Amino acid sequence: MRTTILTILALAVVAAGIYFWSSKSSGPAAGSTIVKEVSYGPFSIFVNATGELQAKRSTKIRGPQTMRSVGIYQTTISELIPEGTIVSKGDFIASLDKTELATKMQEVQTEIEKIQTQLEQTKIDTAIEMKEIRDEIANLQFSMEEERLEIEKNRYEPEMIIEQSKLKLEKSERDYGQLLDKLKLKQIQSEAKVGEIDANLRQQNNKLGQLSGVANQFTVFAPEDGMLIYESNWNGKKTTGSQVSAWDPVVAELPDLSDMISKIFVNEVDISKVKKGQEVSVKIDAFPDQMFPGTVNKVANIGQQLRNQDAKVFEVLVQLHEIDSLLRPAMTTSNEILVYSYEEVVSVPIEAFKKDTLAYVVRKEDGDYFRQEVVVGEANSDEIVVVAGLERGDIVCLTFPDNLPELELKYLTEEERRAAKEGLSAAAKTRAKYERENAARVNEEIASKNEGGGSRVIIF
User: Fold this and answer.
1) Is 75 in the same domain as 104?
2) What percent of the chain clears pLDDT 90, i.e. is strictly above it?
3) CATH number of the domain where residue 87 is located
4) How many domains are contained in the chain?
5) Local structure of 42: helix, strand or coil
6) Is the residue at 208 inside a domain?
7) Nearest Cα residue to 211 out of 87, 94, 55, 70
8) CA-to-CA distance for 97 and 244, rounded, in angstroms?
9) Domain range spanning residue 194?
10) 232 and 87 share a domain?
11) What's residue 362's pLDDT?
12) pLDDT tens-digit readout, 337-383
């Protein structure tokens, strides 16, 4: 019995030793490490960004542009046809709230009636006053005739009586002259007062005419044929109930769907890679199976902070070269900007690359695993270029063994490092030359466009 127990213990020890040494010599357990052959071929660097479609040109549909002249600085959209409606020139688009305008028109109308009453009263008062003066003149003329007769009658009377009659006539003649002057001045004064009231009346009538003209513009019609798109601002789209400012009375717009752009925002980390003239692949989220080629048309020089975002972004406009009837403004886009493309390089997935004190990957060769020092170049969102340390056909690990620090580390030779450095320098020069040529081509296209008088032809 004792011999049997000892035999079993001996077998267990031997089995444990065999398992320990076999696992140590073979590296990680089978199935615990994912491997992949390195890639060899073209390698492209992209900048990805989301955005939305916009028409490059559009016709603004504006409300009254003279609201400020009549003291109205803001109004409300009371009715607006649905977005996406196909309209013809002259079709109804929107109506604006006329409450404030109607109040002002009523105030002006009341003022006009008040002035008209004042004018009539002034004319009546003037007529009465002038009639009184004319009556005084007529009475004085009658008195003067009597006084002349009195003088004629008293010519044989004593000199004193004759002189008294003459003085009385002279006084009447003087009063007569004064009354004539008073009548003339009263007439001038009346004309001036009536003229002032007439001027005020004309001013109010002109104001009423302006208000009536503006009132006609509170009903908005389509200036041309097209598809209606709501106007967007920082507060969202302008719809029924939205405010229309006198400084920006745009109600909606009619985009030119034959010329579309994708407006995107690139993170400040990647904006240095984006240049005018770069090729872009634009996908519409609503139609993920279709791809539209484009070109970077404009890159903003100043960043901005979008709402609910911490990082600064830069606005980039992408010109689409192909148009589909399904494309509509405000559709969400996914944009892949081609920054640069290498022809034939070795690359590995980002997951295979590791950097501690030096850069390395984990290679698998003949069933063994070891760490291989590498020199890397540029990377995209998925892979990174390996300049030295790997060759076509090598196998690398995407997940690392548990005993990673214990794996052998194979270093590059000084000659390999020097060759890698020279290769990186040559690649940088080639890329700089490509970017210079691209910039020159873009400038030439701009000059050609300007000489052509703003032609819409896009030169590639």
Assistant:
1) no
2) 27
3) 2.40.50
4) 3
5) strand
6) yes
7) 70
8) 10
9) 99-217
10) yes
11) 93
12) 999 888 889 999 999 998 888 899 999 988 889 999 999 998 888 89
| Residue 246, φ and ψ in degrees, nearest 5 | -70, -25
Q: Which residues does 93 contact at the CB level (< 8 Å), separation at least 6?
A: 61, 80, 81, 87, 220, 221, 222, 228, 251, 252
The distance in angstroms from the start CA to the end CA of the chain is: 93
Domain's final residue, options 217, 240, 273 = 217
Which of 236, 255, 274 represents a domain boundary (last residue)?
A: 255
Mean pLDDT score, 300-313: 83
Reference 431, options 276, 273, 297, 236; nearest CA is: 273
CB 209, CB 216: distance < 8 Å: no
**Residue matched to tokens 């009465």:** 128
Is the CA virtual torsion 52, 55, 57, 58 positive or negative? negative
Q: Is the pTM of this model over 0.70?
A: no
Residue 81 lies in a domain: yes
Residue 273, domain member (yes or no) = no
| H/E element, 149 | helix 99-153
pLDDT tens digits, residue range 262-290?
A: 999 999 888 998 999 899 999 999 888 88
Is residue 423 predicted with pLDDT exceeding 50? yes
